[in-house]
């Protein structure tokens, strides 16, 4: 398996969607949404983390998800023209960019960058209370903290929202309204793979712009597909206990 192999079908974009948690249902939801959004003919493959948490709602689960994302790329990334990390918070995004030879986009970074292109101040609404400080740190890391009005978290996590979106609608709308009325946001970013599809449910029920992170990530990947990344080759290092494909990638074996 050679993760850096060139694409052989330039006329047909091949998109790899990596879900770094272990919920197959969430991966399927992301793939179905991508098929509605991407150009006809795009070949979309979704991959679910082989190990880790079903829902990423803590720093511990996030750390494991970063490994799972790299593991998924090593196993499945060889023929992709672009990669979308379908996990808000973007676990492993910079590591993926270090090893991938094609563009990689994360939901959180893409949603925040699109928001900053549109308005001066935006807020994030997401499921899982521990995401508050984690996302504030992340937005600062990507240099957009001056645009961040607030992070509003819900008691329900992404898995619970995805399992019963109708039950979550009222709380999500209330959090969005509070972000605008109390925090000064001009736009709200819905955060999380569990929120995929929620935008269509609530957009016409709030009098201000709402976006998700997944759609911009797909759009950026479509625009950048086919670009080859010429990052310096990793210095080979011995490994222990990794899946064969990931060990091959880090050890520099061809």
Q: Which band does the percent of strand residues land in?
A: 15-25%
Element pattern in H and E: EHEHEHEHEHEHHEHEHH
The N- to C-terminal Cα distance equals: 8 Å
The amount of helix comes to 40-55%
Low-confidence stretches: 1-9
Mean pLDDT: 91
The oligomeric state is single chain
- Give the strand order, joined by hyphens, for the main sheet: 2-1-3-4
Give the helix/strand class: alpha/beta
Radius of gyration: 18 Å
Q: How many helices in DSSP terms?
A: 10
The major sheet is characterized as: 4 strands, parallel
Strands, total number: 8
What is the general shape? globular
Q: Describe it for me?
A:
The protein has helices spanning 24-37, 59-76, 93-99, 107-118, 131-141, 158-163, 165-183, 198-202, 214-224, 244-251, and strands at 14-19, 43-48, 82-85, 104-106, 122-127, 148-154, 187-191, 210-212. It is an alpha/beta fold and 254 residues long. Helix 2 crosses helix 10 (244-251) and helix 4 packs across helix 9 (214-224).
Quick synopsis:
By secondary structure, the protein is of the alpha/beta class. 44% of the residues lie in helices and 16% in strands.
Relevant terms:
alpha/beta; 4-stranded parallel β-sheet; 8 strands; globular
Q: Which SSEs are present, and which pair or pack?
A:
Elements: E1 14-19, H1 24-37, E2 43-48, H2 59-76, E3 82-85, H3 93-99, E4 104-106, H4 107-118, E5 122-127, H5 131-141, E6 148-154, H6 158-163, H7 165-183, E7 187-191, H8 198-202, E8 210-212, H9 214-224, H10 244-251
Parallel strand pairs: 1-2, 1-3, 3-4, 5-6, 5-7, 7-8
Helix pairs in contact: 2-10, 4-9
């Amino acid at each position: 398996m050679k993760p850096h192999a060139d694409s052989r079908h330039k006329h047909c974009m091949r998109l790899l969607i990596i879900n770094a948690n272990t919920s197959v249902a969430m991966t399927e939801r992301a793939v179905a949404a991508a098929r509605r959004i991407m150009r006809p003919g795009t070949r979309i493959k979704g991959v679910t983390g082989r190990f880790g948490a079903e829902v990423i709602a803590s720093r511990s689960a996030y750390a494991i998800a970063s490994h799972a994302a790299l593991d998924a790329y090593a196993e499945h990334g060889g023929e992709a023209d672009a990669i979308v990390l379908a996990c808000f918070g973007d676990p492993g995004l910079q590591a993926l960019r270090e090893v991938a030879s094609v563009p990689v986009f994360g939901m959180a970074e893409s949603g925040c960058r699109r928001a900053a292109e549109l308005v001066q101040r935006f807020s994030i609404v997401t499921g899982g209370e521990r995401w508050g400080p984690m996302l504030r740190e992340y937005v600062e890391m990507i240099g957009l903290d001056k645009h961040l009005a607030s992070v509003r978290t819900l008691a329900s996590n992404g898995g619970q929202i995805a399992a019963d979106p109708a039950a979550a609608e009222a709380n999500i709308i209330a959090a969005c309204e509070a972000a605008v009325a109390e925090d000064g946001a001009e736009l709200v970013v819905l955060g999380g793979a569990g929120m995929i599809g929620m935008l269509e449910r609530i957009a016409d029920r709030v009098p201000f712009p709402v976006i998700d992170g997944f759609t911009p990530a797909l759009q950026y990947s479509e625009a950048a597909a086919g670009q080859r990344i010429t990052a310096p080759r990793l210095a080979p290092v011995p490994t222990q206990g990794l899946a064969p494909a990931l060990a091959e990638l880090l050890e520099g074996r061809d």
